Every structure is written in structure tokens, then in C-alpha cells.
Amino acid sequence: MIKEILPNLFKIEIPLPNNPLKSLNSYIIKSKGKNLIIDTGMNREECKKVMEQSLKKLDIELEETDLFITHLHADHCGLVNYLSTKNTTIFCSEADGNIINSLNDTKKWQGMSHFISFSSFPPEELKAALTNHPGYKYSPRENIEFSIVKEGSILEIGNYTFYCLETPGHTFGHICLYEPGEKLLISGDHLLIDITPNISAWSDRVNPLEQYLKSLDKIYKLDISIVLPGHRRIFYNYQERISELKLHHQERANEIINILKYQGPQDGYQVAAQMTWDIKYDSWNQFPPQQKWFAVGEAIAHLNYLEGRNLIHKELKDNKLVYQLSSK
Ligand SMILES: [Zn+2]
User: Fold this and answer.
1) How far apart (Å, rounded) are the C-alpha atoms in residues 174 and 150?
2) How far, in Å, is the centroid of ligand 1 from the Cα of 237?
3) N-to-C CA span, the chain
4) What topology is assigned to 2-107+135-244 in CATH?
5) Model's pTM, two decimal places?
6) Which pLDDT value is given to residue 110?
7) Which of 73, 311, 39, 69 is nearest to 199 (CA)?
8) For the chain, percent of residues with pLDDT exceeding 70
9) 163 contact partners, CB below 8 Å, separation of at least 6
10) Is 67 helix (H, G, I), strand (E, B) or coil?
11) What are 220-245's pLDDT values in tens digits?
12) Per-residue DSSP letter, 285
């Protein structure tokens, strides 16, 4: 379960039970000064156990260890409270750090579900989706004092020098770590292989897909030999993967254009129900509410992107936000 990728740089797999992501890759760098843990796993027993065992095997003392969080999702930051001591510095972007500290505030969740309620998402299922949301269940519980990193911030650990790269899209404050000497990228959930990073929106005021595509272009230009992602396997062919991801989103956007073309005006929930999903359920009706929530978020990210390109527009009809093709 522990693998040494480069000298003193280890990958450990933290299990994520009943989650389609299967596991989280936490990376640990040992040094004579402070050690660094990059991403932690969720705030739940199964993750704590494996993290604890791995730290023991690697002979890591938490008093001599700092934490780096690539982004706000609970599978990446859930154990931050649990792993910190009074000597720990916890690095995170300002945008994502602020959201992590607001996850215990029910108002934030109400805001997201309020926007989705302007669609045909059944209210009971919407409620169930939020109560089962991993961000609601498995995030850190106490307020965290973050040490803010931004574009160009440098982290030196042992022989490694990491540069922070702002890569908004999967979240607004997502950060990748680039080590130019080793041509190594710790990509968080910005670049993944075998699965596609989820790009979601729960508001009409944001355009994360536009940001994500720009962040992909930014990484494409770097010189990278090895990508260490937040989930699944390590990979090398990053430019090929970036091209695939861009094509994937273009195809999703085209699929939505076709849905609106043939079905007429639709709300976000209706659009999501007609998109194709790479998931084990046979039909939309079998999706658990939680999966529907993620699907609708992804549909809205693509709808906002198309709206930003003036290809579609929306209006409020009978208390539902409906989208339709713009006439040329
Ligand atoms: Zn994530």
C-alpha cells in the first residue's frame, strides 16, 4: 500500500469506502527538516486507520510534519484537524481554505440547494442528496488556520522544490505542485487518468468549465515527466491526457446542444437526466440522489459554459430556470 515513487517521496492509498473514486492518493515527503503530507483522506475511521498505519511504517512524527491541501474536497482535506499538532503548518489556497472553514455552516449548503431548487429536482431527493453529501459528512469539524499559498509560492522539502500553480476549475482554489528539477506534477484532481475530474456548478454566476479548460492549457505547456494524481494510477503522457479531457468536455457540450435542439427548452435536472453517464446504474431513475446531485452540477457547469459562449440562454419559467438554444 506504501510505494516509494522517488527518493523519500511516498504514495499511500487511503480507501474511500462506497465511493466511486475508490481511494485517495496521499503523498508523503520525508526530510531531515519538516516532512510534508499532501492530501489526507476523509474524516472517517477507515481513512484514519490506514493513514495512521502508514505514518507508523514510514516512521513519521506528526510534530515534525506539515500538511498541504490541493483543494477543498473532503477526500483531500478531511483529516486535517486529526493530523495537526501545534507545530503543523497547513498550506491551502485562500479560496478553498475559506470554503473548508464554511462547510459546517448550513447556510452554504442551503445556498447551493436553493439554486438547484429552480429545476425539476424532486425536493425530497434534493434533501437526501445534501444529507449524504461527503462534504457534509466527512469534512474537518474544527476551524482551521491555513497558511495561504498562491501562484508561484514555493515549498522546499528535503531535496525537492515545489512551485504552487493555481489551476481553478475542479474547485476555484485548486492548486497543483510542480517540481521542475524532477519534472514532476502533483496534480490533485486537476488531471486524472481512467476517470474524468468532476467539473460542477451550483450557481449561474460561475463558469468553472471555462476556467478548467484554461487551467488544462496552462499545464499542457509545462515540461512534465510524471504526474502524481489525487486518485487512481500515476501516469506520464500528460499532453495526450489533456487533449482527451478537452475533447471529453467538448463532446459533453455538444450532447447538451443536441438535447436542447431535439427536446426544446429544458431545466438543469432534465438536461442531466438525458445525458450519458459512465455509471453502473441502468437508468436515471436508479441513480441515488447523491449521484443525481453531482450529475446536475456537471450539467449546469456545461450549461453555464455554453451560455458564456452565447450558444444558449436561460429564462425563469414557472419557477424553473430553463435553457434553450440561442437563435443565430
Ligand atoms: Zn476533488
Assistant:
1) 10
2) 21
3) 55
4) Metallo-beta-lactamase; Chain A (3.60.15)
5) 0.95
6) 79
7) 73
8) 100
9) 152, 153, 154, 177, 178, 179, 180
10) strand
11) 999 999 999 999 999 999 999 999 99
12) G
Q: Tell me the Cα Rg of the chain.
A: 20
Question: How far apart (Å, rounded) are the C-alpha atoms in residues 57 and 72?
Answer: 27
Cα(171)–Cα(189) distance, integer angstroms: 9
Kindly indicate the confidence band of residue 142, based on its pLDDT and cuts at 50, 70 and 90.
confident
The CA distance from 10 to 56, in Å, is: 13
How far does residue 326's CA lie from ligand 1's centre (Å)?
Answer: 33
Q: For the chain, which residues make up each domain, given as ranges?
A: 2-107+135-244
CB–CB of 14/138 below 8 Å? Answer: no
Could you please report the per-residue DSSP string of 4-58? EEETTEEEEEEE-TT-TT-EEEEEEE--SS-EEEE----SSHHHHHHHHHHHHHT
Residues in the chain: 328
C-alpha cell at 277: 453517464
171: CA distance to ligand 1 center in Å? 7
Question: What's the distance, CA 241 to chain centroid?
Answer: 17
Q: Please tell me which residue, 291 or 104, carries the higher pLDDT value.
A: 291
Residue 90 Cα to ligand 1 midpoint, Å, equals: 18
CA 58 to ligand 1 centroid distance, Å: 26
